[in-house]
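Example record

The entry below shows one chain as it appears in the dataset: sequence first, then structure tokens.
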Amino acid sequence: MGVLSVICRRAALLRRAVAAVGAVGAVGAAGLLVLGPAAVAAAAPSGGEEGPGSFRIKDPRITESSGLAASRTHKGVYWTHNDSDDGPYVYAVDSSTGRTVATVTLQGIDPRDVEAISTGPDGQVYVGDIGDNLNGGWNEVWIYRFREPAKLRDTTVAPTRYTVRYADGPRDAESLMVHPKTGRVYIASKNQNKKGGIYAGPEQLSASGVNVFRRIARTEVWATDGAFSPDGTRLVLRSYFGGEMFRWRDGKPEALDTPVSVPMAGQGESVTFTDDGRTLMCGSEGKGSTVDPLELDGELLPDSVPADDRKADGGAQGGGAAGGGDEGQLDEKKVVVGGGAIAGLVVLWMLLRRGFRRR
């Protein structure tokens, strides 16, 4: 293998490492200088302070906001929930005030480790009781579904409960995504012990029996949350300090070259798209945590955004497609850079390879 090929391959792996833990967290300021502005979607305010478009969750009961989903019925309202040890509660938070405007109690549910929430095209809210801190110790996890209330007020609902198993065995996951057009449910597992992947549920979930989720793509993102764009053409997976965007085509993800640089804010746990698909809203755990916007650009923008609205210097174009069949691995893309940038990437690779090597 030639020297240039080796460098390009390592550059591609470095890009994946940046996406796994974040452009800022992984490589610091020096890395940003090497990767250039096209490697970052946009600058974002710190999660500890409210910047333009940010809001602070003021409800003292919400101390571990672990999932986030934009309401499809109530503009400017976001659904969230605590991590484990809270109870069967889902909260609707008004982004204009940061105050809780409705608390939904899930009747008959004793949650174990609720980690994710998503809204579907059918006016339903999906709650993922899918966490597994034992790293594969639970044979089954659950998804709860209830209809989004027409009026925002405290209420108790009897949700539909779905039992979930993975075709290739138990694993830890914190990301539940419902496609906004097809209604199909997907789960992204954490990349722990090389178990990172995107799993597709049956075309329609069944409340009787077990719903088997099958891996359709591998990922190297330590995913703490994920979300589809409103038009269904983009899927974002975030980690504590970064993220990766995928083009969604024919039910499969195609990884984009431009990594997602999420706001730096404590333990980054959640992400969702705004109604127009142009911005990510990123949340973190902690009492009084903020939800911060990240404006998207270039190839990160969904296909529904007019071409004229995409900046000319937006992200790189293209992306590696997942392989065919029921299970594909996202292709590693080779990055072509100038001589100075190549040297910088090699230095960074040598510093990081112990932490991000495949073996």
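Notes for this example: The helical segments are 3-21, 23-35, 339-356. The first strand starts at residue 55 and ends at 56.
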